[in-house]
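Reviewer comment 2.1 asked that we show a complete input and output for one of the modelled complexes. We chose the manganese (II) ion case, as it is the one discussed in the main text.
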Amino acid sequence: MTVVLADILKGRKSVAISGHVRPDGDCTGACLGLYMYLLKEYPDVTVDVFLEKIPQSFHMIEKTEDIKNEVIAEKPYDLFICLDCGDKSRLGFSTPLYEQAKHTVCIDHHVSNQAFADENYIVPDASSTCELIYTLLDKDKITRSIAEALYMGIVHDTGVFQYSCTSPSTMEIGAELLRKGINGSKIIDQTYYEKTYIQNQLLGKALLESFLILDKQCIVAVLEKKDLDFFEAEASDTEGIVSQLRLTKGVEVALFMYEMETHLYKVSLRSKEKVDVSVIAKFFGGGGHARAAGASITGTKYDVINQVTEQISFQLGKENKQL
Ligand code: 5GP
Ligand code: MN
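Response of the prediction step:
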């Protein structure tokens, strides 16, 4: 069921907007796009955005300076809007605000989303949450700044209009956003392709030490905590490594993992056309989409690799039998 913005905002005096932990381009773009729209169109409503620290490159989007990185005890919000977050536990530090809010709405495109809020607008076929936000707004009231935020999100979740989640309407929305006068190539360059020296070094290390398994259908790369520490890198500096691994010719699944804490790995999975990685991520308590999913898994490096590749192997086995 769709959500009508005017309806969910009716009678609300305070609104909190939040997204998932380790916010990516789509999550950040959706939160800021909606935030800027509400600021302009609902001036009587108090609106706040709560997100963990965003990558430096996203600061070219307006109003990033308004993002709150912590919850200061206040009275409960009338409405909590949860964006791009496939499961409640992924709200992170803003969870108490969600729990206390008088009403909650979730807008998302993760196939693994179990519709956890009071009202849910979940469209797994949508390329991105930014695409969904676009459909909820009055097109004439979208400013250039809002368009920039939404464009960034669509660009990131479609791998620059490339992944299979890119539909004709994704392209049409992209075109409409460009018509708002945004500099699309600058957003793509500076928020998606541009890498710091450290990010490239990490990518290089991951690629150099990657290995092929499961009859060369799966590529695996691991970065340990000591590697991140050595480069003085943050977790978000690993963004994009799994997409590069996935490009390897002949590979169906890419598995990238980095050590968040001792014996706790953040696992990212990407597939090309056969394996549904959301099923695998869900098996380990995570989630995502058919072609891009993730989970946090405890164990030694070898435990995690063995467990995840076993699940990949089950699916590849089934696929191969069907051929
Ligand atoms: P990434 O591998 O880039 O972190 O995430 C790929 C996709 O899977 C994203 O849509 C992301 O939101 C989702 N995802 C990643 N990790 C988790 C997780 O631990 N739980 C859930 N539910 N989704 C995840
Ligand atoms: Mn998304």
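The chain has a mean pLDDT of 96. We note this here for comparison with the apo prediction described in Section 3.2.
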